[in-house]
Amino acid sequence: MGWNRSLFLLLNASAAPSPPVVLAAKFLAADVIFLAMALLVGLWVRGRPEKRAALLATVLATLAGLGVNQLLGMLWFEPRPFMIPLGHTLLAHAPDNSFPSDHGTFLWTIGFSLIATGAFRGWGKAVAVAGIAVAWARIYLGVHFPVDMIAAALVAVASAALARALLSPVRRWLLPPAETVYQTALRVLHLPPDVFPRG
User: Fold this and answer.
1) E strands, the chain, where?
2) Rounded to an integer, what distance in angstroms lies between the CA atom of residue 152 and that of residue 97?
3) Number of domains present in the structure of the chain
């Protein structure tokens, strides 16, 4: 796909990139997903209990999206840019299939699902925007093509629709045992139920 390679070369780092930009891109490319995980945990312990079903649905949808990525990867192999080779590579990565991007799918599914379930729209928008930044960073650093990110976004949209569809059954069947496990963990750790007070 000519447009894919052309867009990649437009976004990819130059032969003499700015060190601060490279440092920022590496943080975005590798570490933002951990912030997204921490956000979900924080929303669980500090958000309103009635919104926890949306968080569980978001987690299930994210796992489903990553599973779809594995299936798509079996159907279509897209070499990473440095495997061709093309452009400049500034981030070490295994020479495996890049299609679709797991990082993009992970972040966008969380963001879109928080929006689609209606529980944390503001946070969902923030995560979705962070996903755009991560997509740029991974292309800039030479480990993904734009088409990998486009595919990830499409998978994330479908996964967010799944999160919305799962909201009611999750609230009915999964949330009660999850709440029991959470409260039991607090008791085992000798923590009061309001150890994480909500604002």
Assistant:
1) none
2) 13
3) 1
Residue 21 lies in a domain: no
Task: Enter the pTM of the model.
Answer: 0.94
pLDDT, tens digit (0-9, with 9 covering 90-100), for 16-72: 999 999 999 999 999 999 999 999 999 999 989 999 999 999 999 999 999 999 999
CA distance 87 to 174: 47
Q: Distance between the two ends of the chain, CA-based, in angstroms? A: 50
195 domain-assigned: no
CB 46 within 8 A of CB 198: yes
Q: Which residues 6+ apart lie within 8 Å of 112 measured at CB?
A: 124, 128, 156, 157, 159, 160, 163
- Type of residue found at 170: V
- The stretches of 47-96 forming alpha helices (DSSP H) are 52-75
| Greatest distance between any 2 Cα atoms in the chain | 60
Q: Does residue 196 fall inside a structural domain? A: no
**For residues 1-8, average pLDDT:** 93
Angle at 126 between CA 117 and CA 94, to 5 degrees: 100
- 11 in a structural domain: no
Site of tokens 């000519």: 2
In this structure, the number of other CB atoms found within 10 A of the CB of residue 64 comes to 18
The DSSP call for residue 80 is -
* Residues of the domain holding 180: 36-87+96-188
